[in-house]
Amino acid sequence: MNFNPQCAAKILARKPQPVTWVWDSYIAEGDLFVFAAFMKVGKSTFIYPLAVAIARGLPFLERQTKKGGVLILALEEHPRDVELRLRKLGMTPNDPIYIHSGPLSNNEQALRDIRSFIQEKRIRLVLLDSLPYWWNVRNENDNAEINERLKPLLQLARETGAAIGLIHHESKYGGRDAVGGSQGDGKSIRGASALFGIVDQAILLDRRQGKTLNQRILKAIGRRSESPRELVVELEGNTALSDPQPYTYRLLGTPEALSEAAAKDRVWSVLTAESQEVKAVEAAAGPGKKVVREALEALVAEKRARREGKGVKGDPYKYAVEVEADMTEGVTTHAE
Fold this sequence. Notes:
The chain is of the alpha/beta class. 35% of the residues lie in helices and 22% in strands.
């Protein structure tokens, strides 16, 4: 009999269990999570460095990991490519990384074997790559069927404490809606809403619109309120498997912070030692009146620029480079 309610007194008598992070603020022990991206955005090239970092207990994107074994169920990708990628990332014989390549039946026996392996090798992270090659659903839009297929994996994560990641695909719009708007609420994940509903966390990777090709937006949606909503990451190095040199991802910051920094750089580049009215700065710095004005005020607050005037008719605000800041920054491009 599984029915076993407990009273408040008994619950409060126990020492509360803090969240143990496998990857700080993103993935906790015992989580079932989905990691999704549109085709060719870079699901495998992103998730494999994370797996190596966890196997070694090293930070990833400036966030701590908890060292432990990693089991990769590479059901889709060619075994050769899996091996080449891990070699490229510097995998050593001492890394507790285990790979199953090729088809794997989705049945009770396979789940028992996986459970035993998790317990024997003290696996902390399981990556199922990719979900469509495992669940054998007849209709991806059938919520009841999706729930039926995923409940055993959720139970496996809960009972073993291993975080289980489902590598999956986004819809044909790849994280955008039909008119190009962002789908930041999980609706971009392919399949029925039950998939998003059953997982603890959805981690999404999307191209950064209008920016360099090697930048991505990392999004997190789910039960983990500690997770940053969006971060910008940048690929460093060549992901081509024919190139033996390693690659990595580095954290750039939030989209908002990067936009503010870019705006300040834009405005700073057009300021001179001679005071200019706001309209002149706007004309030189480019579009976005509000952005330009906010950047000017930020530069004044940082004492990189000075503001003159009272901001009234006949005595408008004017802005110029703060001479000491100009010398400190080593800027030589401002007009004299």
